[in-house]
């Protein structure tokens, strides 16, 4: 059961990289003078799936800690990274919903959305690294 959280999180990270690739098309067209067709609906849908899955992963990780240790959260980098991800997901979701529901030509909001989500992916990569350390110390011993 303890393996579910790291495996699920890794799969969601892969899906998030795909969502980033979809968003890159829009960035390239709007800001770099490139050409391409932005798959808006797919990007929005899969972005929401990633946010929901990472939120569930956060809750699942907290539940696993609670079941196997006498606390909801272990103090450390992995826990703090999870909280940072929650905050970034909130900002990414709000900016994404505004752009999806109130379509208009914009420059700043899409850039903010992209920046927040790139930071989110970087944090997820950090989570994978700190999570691997936990897997080695706890699950592989």
From TrEMBL:
Give start-end ranges for the coiled-coil region(s). Answer: none
Q: Which domain of life is it from?
A: Bacteria
Q: Which InterPro entries match?
A: DUF4079
- Is Transmembrane helix tagged as a keyword? yes
Tell me if Methyltransferase is a UniProt keyword of this record.
no
Q: Which UniProt keywords apply?
A: Membrane, Transmembrane, Transmembrane helix
Protein's name according to its UniProt entry: DUF4079 domain-containing protein
Which species is this UniProt entry from? Paucidesulfovibrio gracilis DSM 16080
Give the organism's phylogenetic lineage. Bacteria, Pseudomonadati, Thermodesulfobacteriota, Desulfovibrionia, Desulfovibrionales
């Amino acid at each position: 059961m303890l393996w579910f959280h790291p495996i699920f999180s890794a799969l969601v990270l892969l899906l998030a990289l795909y969502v980033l690739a979809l968003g890159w098309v829009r960035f390239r067209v709007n800001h770099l003078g490139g050409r391409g067709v932005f798959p808006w609906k797919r990007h929005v849908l899969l972005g929401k799936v990633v946010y929901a899955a990472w939120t569930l992963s956060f809750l699942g990780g907290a539940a696993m800690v609670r079941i196997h240790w006498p606390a909801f959260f272990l103090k450390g980098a992995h826990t703090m990274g999870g909280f940072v991800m929650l905050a970034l997901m909130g900002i990414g979701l709000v900016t994404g919903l505004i752009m999806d529901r109130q379509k208009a030509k914009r420059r700043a909001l899409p850039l903010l959305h992209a920046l927040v989500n790139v930071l989110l992916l970087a944090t997820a990569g950090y989570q994978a690294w700190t999570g691997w350390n936990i897997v080695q110390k706890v699950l592989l011993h």
